[in-house]
Amino acid sequence: MTITSLSVRIPAELRAKLKVQAEHNKHSMNAEIIKRLEESFIHQTEPTSSVSKKTTAGNVELPAADVNRIRKVLKKAAKELKKKAD
């Protein structure tokens, strides 16, 4: 993967929001921006037919991208709970 730099102008309020979220997620603003951009492309490329649906057993099927996002959130929550418990 080739890394390149990009200079952008954004409103100060948006920059402040990015900074708060980056600190909350314990990573740099650069990492926060990259994560958000990558997620936006994941959502964009998902086929529109990949909405959740109920199966005959009453279970709900979710698109793989949604399942992966839920896994990440749960893993992060578990780590935070473990830190608090220690």
From TrEMBL:
Pfam families: Arc (PF03869). One of its GO terms (biological process) is regulation of DNA-templated transcription. Keywords: DNA-binding. It comes from the Bacteria. Residues 7-42 form the Arc-like DNA binding domain. GO terms for molecular function: sequence-specific DNA binding. InterPro entries: Arc_DNA-bd_dom, Arc_rbn_hlx_hlx, Ribbon_hlx_hlx. This is Arc family DNA-binding protein. It comes from Limnobaculum zhutongyuii.
